[in-house]
Here is the input.
Amino acid sequence: MAGSNRPAGRINRRSKGAGPLPYDFRRPTKLSREHIRTLQIAYETFARQFTTVLTTSLRAVSQVTLLSIEQFTYDEYIASLESPTVVAKVSMEPLPGTAIVEFSLDIAMTSIDHMLGGSGGPQPQRPLTDIETPLLQGLFGRVLGELRYALEGIASVRPELIGIEYNPQFVQAGGASDPVIVASFEMKVGASEGVATVCMPLGMIFPKLQGDRTDVQLSAAQRAAREAAHRNLVAGMESVPLDVSVRFQPVRMRPEELINLRLGDVVTLNHPSTQPLAVTTAGMTFAHAVPGSHGTRLACLIVAPAKEEDR
Here is the structure.
């Protein structure tokens, strides 16, 4: 989260015009376009209500605008946060798990300054004092009330503040590889600005989004477009080239045997002559074959897998 004295790189990276992003097929996105649209409506409502809370509570010109909704792992999200920053752990009863509401320490100090009658301006970068902490907690209480209101269309929740941390690495709200949905907001309070985030575990919000899909009535044109997109996707995937291997059973050797291998040495294979070879791709066996030739080229013939008693 960046205050006015931080580089704008993070804001630019999370902005709507950031351009295309690489797709990781090892971690496919589970949110459909309908899911994203549902969350977008909820978070845009939250941004408007958040703006109202800041303006009325601080009596300063404030603005909160939704930038993006993205899926990360929890470890990637925590690594993207700067330290120190304000990280609020939030329970979302009756939903499982812990959510995070986070924004820069600079904005937190500016907000407290306005609540105490100040004019904002440069702020110290330090944890809050025992007097300042209840003021920020009171502000969080109002903000979480607006988050509850914004999410009513998705789920009925009771957000409650669990605690506040300043070092993201000390926040244990999920496993490193757990998928999370992160909404990023551009946040301005007086002359201070930065990026605020709301992070929810995918397992917390996804079942509620998935349940809503059964209530969506598609028109004939929408169904036809979805079916055409599915056909195009299947046709495109069928033409994707894959590396395929035909393998014998692996051989176990000691390191000294590998080191002492010389040109002309013979390595005995433990593959039974009656057992077909495994045909694999990406480490998965999908067929079995026996070696042979096709004209002058080596080839293999796909056969049924050997029965257990024949092995």
